[in-house]
Amino acid sequence: MFSEDFSISQLAVPAVSILIGFLAYTSQYFFLHFEALPLTKDETWRINIFALCIWICYYRACFVDPGRLPKSEKRPEPKHQEGDGLTGRQRWCRRCEAYKPPRAHHCKTCKRCIPKMDHHCPWTSNCVSHFTYPHFIRFLFYAVVGMSYLESCLWQRGSFVWKNSNLPSYLGPRLGQLIHLFILFVVNSLTVFALFVLLLRSLWSLGTNTTTIESWEIERHATLVRRSRVLGGYLEGPGGIRIQIKKQEYPYDIGIWANIKQGMGGSANFISWFWPLAATPDRRTGWEYETNDFEDPGVSWPPPDPDRIPMPINTNLGPNAPQPYANVQEQIDAFNRRKTEDMKRFTANSGLQRRKPFHDRYQRDEFAPSESDESEPRSGNDSDEGEESWRNAEGERLRDFGVDEEAEFYDEDDIPLGVLLQRRQEQSSN
């Protein structure tokens, strides 16, 4: 019946469209045939204007391109890249084969890195990103305002029916109308409540200039800081590397007004924030972001995380390194052969070698935290092993936001060998 590529998520946009149409237009049909309190002209144009704004903002949130990174092995300028001053790591996405700018993450659904990725929304089948966030906020705003107005209209008719419930049935609405009114009231009430909660959370994120992923990272960092306090300020990373963990301030909160301005596309025009046809943020933006300078320039976000640091590579790529190979291509081929053998040796199924979870690396009876750590990884099946399964206080992990966890946690190559060799040649020629 369905093709092999069919996914239930493909029904999300049609389902939301049906819901919007049901609430916006069948309600008007009910009001027009409700003889006791028919729909007035003012109510008609208000409902339809709100519906039009919802349609425009929703479909822009669905179909505007959330952004993509150009494939390039050329090393970007320092202001366009994010490096970790403590570990020397520079963000490289091995899926996209490109440098990853600040606040970008690889979406497992869109299969590319998304600038300032907030989350992949299942109800729009699109990523909420630097380019789609203003449309998403406007959709939530008009949906809540429009359905709140519809709620008042439904409440007015429902109150009238209740007050006149002692009248004979032939003087009141028909049974079908009562059922229709009840369904409209229940569906609209539940929907507007859920969207109101989501709008409040989104407005909070807008005011603090944090994405849902970055909120997760903030909570993750707080957990690592608590752990490091009982271990002398250090945690062990891959290959036995000791990583110093210091409390780090979130760098992108630059003030409420500036935060909102940046999140709504960079315009200071207050009216344009509410205009459904407002322009999408300039495609030249989204590569770098203003910071509050609370931390040193060499300190990056997210903070150092032992399980997000690449495995050490025992290859000397300095300018004075010996040259045992006839040419660069032979060196690359030899490296790829060693890499293949390592993967066969360490993993039976040639998959990714998952690192041990924190509670397996340290014995609880030896290092007992002074305060309870509610966010420890949960044990379970294979998909819940390792630090990538860490959940915040709300039980969310990175994959719940649409992030490709393997690209985030197991990018052990970090920067490809070819790029490192090219960099070494540039250093030698200087």
UniProtKB/TrEMBL annotation:
Transmembrane regions: 12-32, 44-61, 139-158, 178-200
Positions annotated as active site in the UniProt record: 121 (s-palmitoyl cysteine intermediate)
Catalytic reactions on record: L-cysteinyl-[protein] + hexadecanoyl-CoA = S-hexadecanoyl-L-cysteinyl-[protein] + CoA
Short name of any one Pfam family annotated for the protein: DHHC
Residue intervals of the Palmitoyltransferase DHHC domain: 88-217
Biased composition (Acidic residues): 403-415
Molecular function GO terms recorded: protein-cysteine S-palmitoyltransferase activity
Protein's membrane topology: Multi-pass membrane protein
Biased composition, class Basic and acidic residues, residue ranges: 388-402
EC number(s) reported in the record: 2.3.1.225
Cited function: Mediates the reversible addition of palmitate to target proteins, thereby regulating their membrane association and biological function.
Domain-related comment: The DHHC domain is required for palmitoyltransferase activity.
UniProt name for this protein: Palmitoyltransferase PFA4
Source organism per UniProt: Penicillium canescens
